[in-house]
Structures are given as structure tokens and as C-alpha cells.
Amino acid sequence: MHYQVGGSLTKDAPSYVDRRADSELVDALQRGEFCYVLNSRQMGKSSLMVRSHQKLSGQGYRCAVLDMTNIGSENTTPLQWYKGIVKDLWRSLKLTHQADFTFKSWWKDEEDISLLQRLSQFIKDVLLAQFPDDDLVIFIDEVDSILSLPFPVDDFFALVRFCYNQRAIDPDYKRIHFAVFGVATPADLIRDRTRTPFNI
After folding, report:
1. Percent of the chain scored above 70 by pLDDT?
2. What is the rounded CA–CA span in Å between residue 86 and residue 127?
3. pTM to 2 decimal places
4. What stretch of H or E contains 103?
């Protein structure tokens, strides 16, 4: 038997031990719930994410992973951060092969609106439009890295909340789901309690 100490296990690692959380997370995402797995380091969060990604992809879900450490922290500007999120989603979902336009052309066309609205438009006009028959799951990993950003990200969490609230108006939003992973508590990530997704 092969054992691994530290780091994420691969999706087919023979030493992976299924936990109750494996089925609970997948079931909750299938029901359309906002999910978060927040705990200390080396507790299997990323391995849980990898396995959930595999299971849902196998069931026809389109899955994307946003690793927030990859997007940046201390020296990142809001423009770089939001653009990085959109670009990572673009690549993760292989939109290069799906869309009739490029990332650069789409981003340039949206330059006259705020960064948050750009991300919102991307979710509505690109993700949901390019995959009209599929449910999409966005896994947000290492979310605690946003705590060192030099600007507030309440708007980002407000957008996640917006996507869930919008389901009552636009059923298309029922096809997009979020799961957040990191070393934090909801209180760490909440600045404005009226805009947080942690009380959906």
C-alpha cells in the first residue's frame, strides 16, 4: 500500500479513503446548494475537491477549479485579480475550443464596465450561454489566500450570493454551483454580513 503525506491525492490514488464528506459534498452540489469546506491544513480538503470534481465530471457536470493562490495576493491589483479569475475559468472550461471569440477580444469589449460586472457578465453571457445544457460547478480552492489581498473582496462574495438569489428570477442560474475550500472560518471571510454567501 502506498501512503502519501501532504498534498492532494490524485483522483485514482489507491490509498484514498472515502469519507462521509465525499458523498455529502457531491449530493449537496447536485441539489444546487452553496457548499464550503473550511478546516485546518492537511485535513484532506483538496483531495476531497479532486474526488468531487471527478465524480461530478463523470456525471456530465462541467467543472472548473479556481486556485486562489495562483491568481495572486499581496501585490495583486483588482484588475489583475478579476482578470485572472475570468482567464482561469476560461482555460479550466476549455472555452478556447467552445467560443467563437477569444479571451482578449471579449475582455476588451467589456472594458467600459466595472470589474465585478465583467465577471458577472462572463458568468451569464459566456459560461451559461456556451454550455446551455450543462450544470457548472466552480470549485474555489485556497480561499484563505484572499485574506492577504490589498483590497476588499466583499464584491466577489456578493456576486456568488447574487448567483443564488438570481435563481428566483432567472432559472438559468440554477445550473451554476459554487464550492469553497480553504483554511479559514466563515467569520474570517465575512466583512459585510449583508453581502456574504455564507448565510444563503
Report:
1. 82
2. 10
3. 0.85
4. helix 103-109
